[in-house]
Design goal:
There is one protein chain. This protein is α/β, with parallel strands linked by helices and about 250 residues long. Helix content is about 35%, strand content about 25%. The strands form two sheets. Strands 6-7-8-3-9-10 form a six-stranded mixed beta sheet, sandwiched between helices. A four-stranded antiparallel beta sheet has the order 2-1-4-5, with helices on one face. Helix 3 runs parallel beside helix 5 and helix 4 packs antiparallel against helix 5. The two termini are about 25 Å apart.
Length: about 250
């Protein structure tokens, strides 16, 4: 259902000793939406993604539908939300084997690949452009190919929500644009996507809504068009010029 709320966070708080990483953050993601998440280093972006995906404890409330996420098992949550982290693990496995890992939350105790699993996995390889190199080891890939291999795993996980932490950091400009266009395809298929992006231009261009974080707090949330009007925020946090020349779509 278009515009369906996939998750809703209220008053999320996270501290590491005396350092507050998240402070009373509210966050809602809807189906068919790409939400950009920007802010300076250390503003809490990655912490928020890790808390949502279940890799970090937090205080506050995070609801998926009518269910509080704390009540979900790790496998149940992995069927709802997939995270592509900023730092990818090293593994001496093939692209195909990595993509298979995305199906594990859907398996029973036997973990046997079904015909449906194979179909989902092949589709993930196809849409990420990895058909033909699926039997290569990850160590044999370029940085951009490796990033797409991990995205194939996330797509194969087949969750309503996808969280991406600087997913194009190892890609050249051509592959970056292809990557974001792929995210639009996933968005149009009904996925809800949150992406942390080091390129403000790309965030503004490809996001439907954009959220700015500063020192663990949300300080702005609206459309990219309205953020451009807030030149004080962009100049103060990102040292953008007073006159912005950013191409946005109508």
């Amino acid at each position: 259902m278009a515009n369906e709320v996939l998750f809703e966070a209220r008053h999320m708080h996270k501290a590491f000793g005396p350092t507050i990483a998240l402070k009373d953050v509210d966050f809602t993601l809807r189906r068919g939406e790409i939400r950009g998440l920007i802010g300076e280093n250390g503003s809490g972006k990655s912490t928020l993604l890790r808390a949502i995906s279940g890799f970090m404890r937090y205080s506050g409330s995070l609801m998926i539908g009518k269910v509080e996420c704390r009540s979900l098992s790790s496998k149940e949550r992995a069927r709802q939300v997939a995270l592509l982290p900023q730092i990818l693990p090293q593994a001496n496995i093939t692209v195909r084997t990595l993509t298979e890992h995305g199906r594990y939350p859907h398996h029973g105790s036997i973990r046997r690949m079904s015909a449906h699993d194979e179909e989902v996995m092949e589709n993930a390889l196809e849409i990420t452009g990895l058909k033909g190199i699926e039997d290569k080891l990850l160590g044999e890939l370029s940085g951009g190919e490796r990033q797409r291999a991990f995205l194939a795993m996330v797509i194969a996980q087949d969750t309503p929500m996808i969280l991406l932490d600087e997913p194009t950091s190892h890609m050249d400009l051509v592959y970056q644009r292809e990557f974001y266009e792929l995210l639009e395809v996933l968005r149009d298929s009904g996925k809800g996507i949150v992406m942390v992006c080091h390129s403000i231009d790309m965030s503004l261009y490809y996001s439907d809504r954009i959220m700015v974080m500063h020192e663990g707090e949300e300080i702005f949330f609206s459309t990219p068009f309205e953020l451009i009007e807030e030149k004080i925020i962009l100049k103060k946090l990102f040292d953008y010029p007073d006159i912005l020349q950013i191409s946005l779509r109508n």
